[in-house]
## 1
Amino acid sequence: MTGVRVGLVCSRVRVEEKLLLAALADRPGVEVVRVDDDQLQAVLAGPGDGPAGEDALRACDVVLLRSLSHSRQVALAHLLQAWGVPSLNRAAVLETCGDKVRTTLALALAGVPTPPARVAFTVESALEAVEALGYPCVVKPTTGSWGRLVSRLTDRDGAEAVLEHKAVLGGPQDRIFYLQAHVDKPGRDLRAFVIADRTVAVIARRSAHWVTNTARGAVAEAVAVTPELDALCRRAAAAVGGGALAVDLLEGPDGLLVNEVNATMEFRNSVGPTGVDIPGLLVAQALALVEARRCV
Amino acid sequence: MTADPVTAAACPECQAAVALAPDTLDGEIVPCGECLAELEVVTAVPPTLALAPDVEEDWGE
């Protein structure tokens, strides 16, 4: 494909963004427009020419959204949608995946197996939800990543302490208590990368700690993409709206459960073990979006 | 923009010279070898560093 302008919006150039820039540089005929979201401003209403960052993004054929902040990602995706510029991922998908309440609802509505979970809005009702789920259970921020502030509640005393601290010391979002049954997993969880309705790679994240996140030191190893895994991950991706997604799975005693779906995937620890060119596939998916529009 | 082959900038925390690799890009995070502060490359050319911001609540995947 020739004459394609691909935007890359990011806050910091991490390993992932460097790999994406390298993958874009490998594509002949692709012009890369990098926009720093710290510098960006856009006209929402009223007079005024488009500021530089807005003009640059409006002129793109597709934009890869790589902001660190979920809130910025959503705002940017809505801007691009309003300007008629496709983005990876779409605003609705980012909103669903960036909020664990919405993610769990989407998975449950689609019949995708996921751990039992409840939401409550006061310490008292959250404690009732915890008791209903049973100990141990897990309380998570509705928005957040990298295992931050995820807490395992093992008894009533601990639950009262954690929930009260969240209610008193946190903000309004901390008083949306997302509670999930704890799944006794075998020292690892699975992460699948679904791009364009295809499970392209799966890793296991192994850790002695119950939080198995590579950002917290878990070690990644490749796992074969079985037909069962592929089918489940594709269903999970479709449930949240599709796109380029990282599906986190738990191997429970009764089978696989989809824990979360991430819409701004990190893949630095997954390319090596799997040998799959994930950044190249993300770029290919972005270009496919452009091609699909040009064919209309 | 990419850094020149041999460039260095002062760490804003401890003033140690922090060398930037030739392929350093604006917006990258580099550590200071002396005080271990995380630094953001504001501009690779000319080499300018700032303390990287702390992780915020909604950062992530």
## 2
Amino acid sequence: MVEHRPYCGIAEAVENVKVAPKIWRLTLYTPEIATAAKPGQFVNIRASSQHDPLLRRPFSLNRIDRAKGTISVLYRVVGRGTELISLFRLGEKVDLIGPLGKGFATSHPRQNSLFVAGGMGIAPFFPLAEILLADKATITCLYGVRCADDLAEVSHLETIGVKVVTASEDGCGHYHGQVTDLLAATLRQEDFSLGFACGPHAMLSATKDLCLAAKLPLQVSLESIMACGLGLCLGCTCPKSNGEDYWHICTDGPVLWAEEVDFAWKR
Amino acid sequence: MEKINPLATSLAGLSLSSPLVTASGTCGYARELSQFFDLGMLGAIVVKGITLAPRTGNPGTRLIETPAGLINSIGLENPGVEKFISGEMPFLRQQHAPVIVNISGNTEEEYAALAARLDKVAGVSALEVNISCPNVKTGGMAFGACTIAASRVTTLVRQHSQLPLIVKLSPNVTDIAAIARAVEDAGADAISLINTLLGMAIDIETRRPILRGTFGGLSGPAIKPVALRMVYQVFRAVKIPVIGMGGISTWQDAAEFILAGATAVGIGTASMVNPLAIPTIHQGLQAYATRQGVRNIAELRGMAHQ
């Protein structure tokens, strides 16, 4: 169950801009969601009012601006759904539900926080950084991408005071290699109080192992295909580390403690 | 003067405030939908399928989106009948809608035990016997695929329960009318159809079926014409009422099913896409009944056969 009764209705598009060759940011005026939303939660957006594509597309919140009553999502155009969303114009009436799911837990000791992001996994970190920084935490963000075209958010994060270290195998980042190699090196040099990770499955799996070995508590934001995002269909599961049953990513997550998740689940 | 409700529906001895019910497996145990509208406006709440023992559901990918459709392979994830009764029924009893419990067994004995266990549980208005789940290894659809097995399960459940009995049929059969007649003869009070159509998808990079169980159940607007055809056929074949479902997303879809012969209609995948689908369909159907000049929607039932 979600913590607040989610809003289900229409929000007006106030901006839909390309921020990198295939990456877009959609900003919606929806005071109901902006007021209730917490970092790490998501919204479920309908790409079309027709039957195809049928399902909504879930996106984690990339900006939460209570003062303006807006939220943003950061998305990569990968298929028909996101392609249609990229065509949303100013003033477009967007059908969405949110905020959904459980966000990041920020009540733990977090003076020196570590973010680990892979590709579009950077999306939920800006609003989280705002909250942590307001509380005088310092934040290091390790951000892995495949190439320079995949980079988004770096200047925004740096502007608010996050130390961003990029990693790329093609040499476009500060570190030449995978973000998990950068993570291993970073953990050898510095102690952190709380870790947050979001990105591809293999990256999260490796990040969990490294952080647990370093005794760093880690929260992971998981991604899944969802039919409803509400807990109706029970379709978006990942195994619990107890080996017995499943988390439902839409309602138990999308943020879970890494130690509670069994990352050996992919077929 | 009492306001006449043109959608009031009577089904197998139950009085429903409307013909619109939730399709089993698409609304959990109704808590989630209760965040979006008053469940009292539902004709009935048909809960996610219950089994004797808890089931964790299927591993791996459970959902695949298709053109205007959705393939699922959930695998009857549920807390088991005891935890359902203790954990979910207290909430369901407080809602102002009849509760229909969908039951599923691996064996005939499990269906009998479930029927017996639920028979005297306060707040349970009827049973929907699921002999059509495509996503479990044993039981499920196997019981719904042949007239003899369907008839035996129905007879057995009938012997163990006083509750109105709805049997949910699979569309994955050659002669749906024959199965419908078999469960009617065996004592079913109503028939619901269709469950999902068997479907699959293949990952062209790994060259393997995407679902671990290879096949899953296709739902959504894509299956509506097939569902409508089967409701039409079953209405002609039996005298007991039919609950029609399969891809209903709009009030126009619901009206088609009623004209084909459905006494009530189930809304499933549409609620996942839009949790307000049922209230929206309710409004449209009410206006349609008025425009058609009928005092009750039942007057339109089966009209497509005339």
